[in-house]
Design goal:
single chain; Amino acid/polyamine transporter I; 0% strand; globular
């Protein structure tokens, strides 16, 4: 959860909600908690890989399962573009898109070679990210409150901000995928999810308060690198490079993990004949899905070239919220002994749909079009195979 979101999501959220940004964060956290609780219950009931794609197929049928899997692929592809654009915005704002393109190509090549993010590397990245965030908070706070020179946003933008801020919470479901590998998953997984989500929320709240107070909503909304700008506003502006380094390492680490997740999900869907079979081809030496890597690289590069950070964050949130709506619907059908209180998946399902349609119009329209293309494509694939039989 500590990836590009905590470094990049504040500006678009401030643009729509202004000082109400923190209310949006609270709403996003509630929806994320419901989603995480439902996903944890599903993982305990069905301890297999595949997330809501597998849960949807098992509890609701092939079409809801496909919808979840396709929404995941779409949403996380947009996340890849957001991570890359974050690297460009912090590292070289004037040439953000070329830097983002280079970042995508390098990390897709790294993952296709079979070089993955290990637990040890994850701990190093986490330590670097936490260090950078600590520097931001401690060096920006002495700057004091920024003058409120221009009022922007308002309570009417809370739901849109919540949908955008939901992007920052993505990642808690990774814990649920470990149900096969831990002792007493029925107790361990829900506790781990709640703890991780609670710690992330506390950290986001602190950082959000600092950048909002130091820069003010209007200046925050205009910033392409808000955490670095918050440090520059403080008494030690030369430490802004720490925020930049933290953003780059966090975003690159998250991007490498996303590349692995998206390509393997596409591989699994291709094997189930929900996506073209070519995506199931793997390299003999590394065992990685070569065609899926190439397709992902092309799609992310296109998004980097044509979309801005707000649009790709919104598109990512739209796909992931749709994914979790299927997870909540699946959790609703679990046996009483294995499901959370019914209001949890119910609130999660409703919250996901409300936040999804509250996102910026360009993100919603893009998401709907891509989801429709996926559904039509699956229909054509299935009808063609049935006809050949």
């Amino acid at each position: 959860m500590l990836g590009a979101g905590v470094f990049a999501v504040w500006a678009p959220a401030a643009a729509v909600a202004g000082w109400w940004l923190l209310a949006g964060l609270a709403v996003a956290a509630v929806v994320a908690w419901c989603n995480a609780t439902s996903t944890a219950a599903l993982a305990v009931h069905l301890p297999v890989s595949g997330g809501a794609y597998a849960f949807g197929r098992d509890r609701l049928g092939p079409w809801p399962g496909f919808l979840a899997g396709w929404a995941f692929v779409v949403g996380k592809t947009a996340s890849c573009a957001a991570m890359a654009l974050t690297v460009g915005a912090y590292l070289w704002p004037g040439q953000a898109r070329p830097v983002a393109l280079g970042t995508v190509l390098v990390l897709v090549a790294v993952d296709s070679a079979g070089i993955t993010r290990t637990a040890r590397v994850t701990r190093v990245l986490l330590a670097l990210t936490l260090t950078a965030l600590a520097v931001v908070v401690l060096s920006a706070l002495p700057a004091g409150a920024a003058p409120d020179t221009m009022a922007i946003g308002g309570p009417g933008g809370v739901l849109t901000a919540a949908g955008l801020l939901f992007f920052a919470f993505a990642g808690y479901a990774r814990i649920a995928t470990l149900a096969e590998e831990v002792r007493d998953p029925g107790r361990t997984i829900p506790r781990a999810v709640s703890l991780a989500l609670g710690l992330a929320l506390a950290l986001y709240a602190v950082v959000g308060v600092v950048v909002l107070a130091v820069l003010g909503p209007a200046e925050l909304a205009r910033s392409v690198a808000p955490l670095a700008d918050a440090v520059r506003a403080g008494p030690v502006p030369d430490l802004a490079w720490v925020a930049t380094a933290g953003a780059v390492t966090a975003a690159c680490g998250a991007l490498l993990g996303l590349v692995a997740g998206v390509t393997r999900t596409a591989l699994a869907m291709a094997r189930e004949r929900d996506l073209p079979s070519a995506l199931a081809r793997v390299q003999p030496r590394s065992g990685t899905p070569a065609v899926a890597h190439a397709a992902l690289a092309v799609a992310v590069c296109v998004l980097v070239l044509v979309g801005d950070l707000t649009v790709v964050i919104g598109a990512s949130s739209f796909g992931v919220l749709l994914y979790y709506s299927v997870a909540n619907a699946a959790a609703w059908t679990l046996p009483r002994a294995g499901r959370p209180a019914r209001w949890v998946p119910g609130l999660g399902f409703l919250g996901c749909l409300v936040l999804a349609v509250s996102l910026p119009a360009a993100s919603v329209l893009t998401g709907l079009v891509v989801v429709a293309v996926g559904l039509i494509g699956r229909t054509i694939l299935r009808s063609g195979r049935d006809h050949r039989r």
